[in-house]
Amino acid sequence: MTRAEDLLPADEQERLAECAREPIHVPGAVQPHGVLLAVDPTTFEVVQVSDGCRRLLGVEVQAVLGHPLEAAVGPGCSRRLRTALAAADDGAVPALRAEVDGTPVDVSAHGSGPLLVVEVEPAGDASPARILAGLHAAAERLSRSRTVEEVRTATAQEIRRLTGFDRVMVYHFHPDGHGEVVAEDRVEEVEPYLGLHYPASDIPAQARRLYVLQPSRHIVLDAEGPNPLLRLGGGAGGDDTTPLDLSRAHLRAVSPHHAQFMRNMGIGASMSLPLVHDGELVGMVSCGDRRARHLPHALRQACEVLARQLTSRLTSLYETRQLSKRLEVQQVRTRLVEQMAGAEDVSDGLTRGEVTLLDLVPAHGAVVSLDEVLVQVGATPPPADVLAVVERLRSTEEGNLPLVSDALALERPDLAELLPSTAGVVFVPFGGDRDYLIWFRREVVQTLDWLGDQSAQNRDTPLSPRNSFSSWRQSVSGRCLPWDPVEVSEACELRRDIDAVLLRRAESRLAHLGLHDALTGLPNRRLLMDRLGHALDRHGRGSAVALLFIDLDRFKLVNDSFGHDVGDALLLHAAHRIKHAARASDTVARLGGDEFMVLCEDTDAVAVGALAQRIVDAFQEPVEMEGRELRITASIGVTTAQEHHRPADLLREADTAMYLAKKEGRNRASRFEAGLRYQALRHLDTEQALRRGLGRGELELHYQPIVDVPTGELRGVEALLRWNRPGVGQVPPDRFIPLAEDTGFIVPLGEWVLDEALGQLRTWKSQGHLPPGFRMAVNLSPQQLGSPTFVAVVQRAVERNGVAPSEVSLEMTETTLMSERSTMSEAVEALSSLGVGLSIDDFGTGYSSLAYLRYLPVQQLKVDRSFVSGAVPGSRDVALVAAVCGLAQEFGMTCVAEGVERAEELAMLAEIGCDSAQGFHIGRPEPAAALEARWRPRATATGGESRARGARVG
Ligand code: C2E
Ligand code: CA
Ligand code: CA
């Protein structure tokens, strides 16, 4: 980001730098109206004293240097100072009234390095009682002032009344460091300065730092000039040559540059009271007098009190003002959000209603740039120009941060050249990193009245102070009116609102697409399970629930011999027949393939039996298709809910009963009987066998390639578990993983999978055929993520196998993420901070809300294969895949499509802009050796350098 100072003219920058080099805190001299002594704090021996101390103290330097402090200020004063110091917790004494050599003086002391600095100033004739009365009256008046302007003016007047100075001004500092006179009280004869601006170099950086340390700074330009500090040992030398730091000394000599500046202004004495808020110099009260008059210490202290009161009054008035401004702007934002949520199109909601973006941030025009489409309100630059800027911003790193400029030509000439008629802009990115809200303001030529001509003619040399301080008018072009920070920050808040609205829309779009089967329009598994869950919840209140599992007989044969089109048409017929046989209140769903389900509520065993029979009967009629008569029958499993049944139990029972129907000769319905539970018991045997199998090396991983859609390059592989069960053959994971999950065996099993997969990754890496960025994907079950040691398990596996965490991607389903949300998201956070990639598997089948995408560190969405396999152009499946890809992009994630079985599907993915793909068309899951055999021959054929190409699959 550009700092405001960087935008100052070059000569002013040079002056600032020059001033900043002057070591003003160690001038080695003090102003002549007082005496400064440096004392050893343990012995109270004077080790330095300012020359000319005789005038105020009545003793010569020689009688003071090397002597106890009392030689200079008398025993009484010295004693009181010691006592006061002993009581002070900051090692400083602000002021002590004393009499030295018959004159009333103010004595103050503070530490500087190893020494104690004691300052003596004439007390003048200001009586403490009078000062206190004046202070009282002033404080009274300040507390009655109601506005920022009133408080400033009252302060200027009251301080002038107290001090009797010719002129008292209040300065306000602008962000670029230049000051403005915002209040003034003065005698008639001096020129008015109110409303004038002065450059930052008038109060250079190190002077500002000193102001923060010191509550006031008083300068008297005595004709005789500063008095040098003399040291023990003679002259300005002495044994210790470290210059005495006078940062906090009242009497610190003025820099020659500043003295010249004051003389040019016609000032003999000044007092400045910094206005410091939270350690920052935010303004200043500046008093000046044509005569070189000394203002007694006590009066200065009274003014310091007023300056502090001014700061606190100003702060609270600003805060109130900011707060009411913020409330006002927030109301506009709320109305905009309501309007946007109600509108069909987000951009229209922001630009077309009763309130628009221009009510939130006043400007000449505003634009919403969403998905390459611009919608504008007010007067904006031509759309082509705006798009060009959006393009340029997107390509930069900071393009996803807000950009605020009221001087575009100066601050961003690269953008200004694309927007010739625009002086200022606000760009607020939203969504991913591609969309923007943009406000435009035109130039407003501002006139600035300067305290003295800033140009070279008014200076002896470019670095000298100005000679004349008469008002000098400058017109500033190339700027718009400054943007209000409150409005800008609300505009940035609006970004979050838009993101939330866009997310909710994506959610409901996906929800609609995702809850129904694309082919038949029937509810899908997800919706069915959801309804089944609700039905079982109501079950206790007398609603008897039954489930029918319908599987078409030998459907695969029809599909394979007559083709998919005939198969699909047949499925549509089947859906129609089932629906026709069922009651209107039943839910008929398609689980996928040739499996259907009917959920009945408020039913009984007799009614369900009758329904099952009606469905079996409905399939007896042959279907006429392309001149052929096809007859396809159905096998049905029936079960009714018992107490404590969960949806998955009911589904399993119906499935088991359906298998029984098949076994008994198909084309019939079977009821789930308690006897069938014996099959469930067989699961237990299976579990034992699985446990033994792991020990006996019966488990094996296959790897399926994942490739980049545009280039076909290998991106990684997914590890998929296989069980080579003796006497049974290869058991697919769907058969034993649910069992392992039910029994908890998945935790050690998953640990084995992770270690095995990462070991394979290490082997491949050491052989050197992997393309850059290759990732090993490993599937996770919910029980694994829920296990308290899981994060440590992953960390250990990564370390033991010597692979980088970023080379590992863990796949979990949304259901996994959502169960016991809080512990899961902790584990997910921890995994992400390890650096492993996280991927949502089977995306599109399980969501309830997508809100988690906003807070979980997920890098990848894997669109479920049911949406990809067999998807035809223009179908709802394709729409869903495109929506998921868009969503992934929006959130800066990548999108992988699973289940690519045909070239057409791959082409469809390329068109949609999907990043990666996986599926039988690209490569089946294979043992490591088989996969290697595919990429190795090419790698050796083309030589060692072309490994990346050699790793291409397909
Ligand atoms: P998944 O994570 O969705 O894995 C992808 C499944 O899709 C694999 O089935 C894969 O063989 C199959 N597939 C890939 N391309 C195609 C295609 O073009 N068409 C079709 N029809 N199928 C395709 P697989 O190997 O039978 O695994 C089934 C599920 O078992 C996996 O689904 C995953 O949820 C689970 N699984 C497999 N290995 C593990 C494991 O190590 N741990 C855990 N927790 N679960 C695993
Ligand atoms: Ca997976
Ligand atoms: Ca999957």
Features:
alpha+beta; Beta-Lactamase; Alpha-Beta Plaits; TIM Barrel; seven-stranded antiparallel β-sheet; 22% strand; binds ligand C2E; binds calcium ion
CATH C-level of the domain at 687-937: Alpha Beta
Number of helices: 34
Structural class: alpha+beta
Q: What is the strand arrangement across the widest sheet?
A: 28-29-31-32-33-34-35-36
Q: The biggest beta sheet, please?
A: 8 strands, mixed, barrel
The proportion of residues in beta strands is 15-25%
Mean pLDDT: 87
Q: Specify the oligomeric state.
A: single chain
User: How many angstroms does the end-to-end distance come to?
Assistant: 48 Å
CATH superfamily of the domain at 687-937: EAL domain
The name of the CATH topology of the domain at 687-937 is TIM Barrel
Extract low-pLDDT stretches. 937-954
